[in-house]
Amino acid sequence: MNEVVIVEGVRTATGVFGGSLSKIPAPVHGAECVKALVERTGIKHEDIDELIIGTHFQAGTKANPARQCGIYAGLPDTIPAFTPNKNCATAMKATCWRLRRRWSACRCCGRTANSRCRA
Questions:
Q1: Is there a contact between 112 and 27 (Cβ–Cβ < 8 Å)?
Q2: Is 13 helix (H, G, I), strand (E, B) or coil?
Q3: Is the torsion defined by CA of 84, 66, 12, 97 positive or negative?
Q4: Confidence (pTM)
C-alpha cells in the first residue's frame, strides 16, 4: 500500500486587495513556494511527477497557472501540471486530487493567487 505523507508546507506573504503584492503575477508568487519546497526538502526535480496547484480566480493568469509555477520555479517543462479552478479551498482540492492519485511517487500541490483581482 502506498502511503501519502505531507512532507512540508510553504506559503508566501499575504497582502490586501490592490496592495504591494498585487503587481506580482500569481504564478510567479506561487513559484516561490515551489522553489522553497524543493530547497527545504531536498526533493530532486526528477522525482516530482506532477504539479497540482489550484487558483481561486484564473482569469488574467493565462493558461494553466500550475504549469507556470513549475516553469518559474525552474522545474523541467516535462513535469505534468494541472490547475483546479475553485473559488474557495483550492489548496484543499489540490491535496484531495493528490490523495486520490496515490500511485505515483511525488507530487507538489497547493494554491496560488494574488490580490490584484476579485471574483
A1: yes
A2: coil
A3: positive
A4: 0.74
State the CB neighbour count (10 A cutoff) for residue 32: 18
Q: Name 80's Cβ contacts closer than 8 Å, sequence gap at least 6.
A: 49, 50, 51
pLDDT in tens, 11-61: 877 778 888 888 888 899 889 989 998 999 898 888 888 888 888 777 777
- Measured between alpha carbons, how far apart are the two ends of the chain, in Å? 41
Measure Cα distances from 96 to 26, 54, 106 in Å.
21, 11, 14
Band of residue 117 on the pLDDT scale cut at 50, 70, 90: very low
The secondary element (H helix, E strand) that includes residue 38 is helix 26-41
Strands (E), the chain: 50-55, 81-82, 107-112
Give per-residue burial for 37-69: e unless 16+ CB within 10 Å, then b: bbeeeeeeeeebebbbbbbbbbeebeebbbbbb
3-class secondary-structure state, position 108? strand
Q: How far, in Å, CA of 68 to CA of 28, rounded?
A: 8
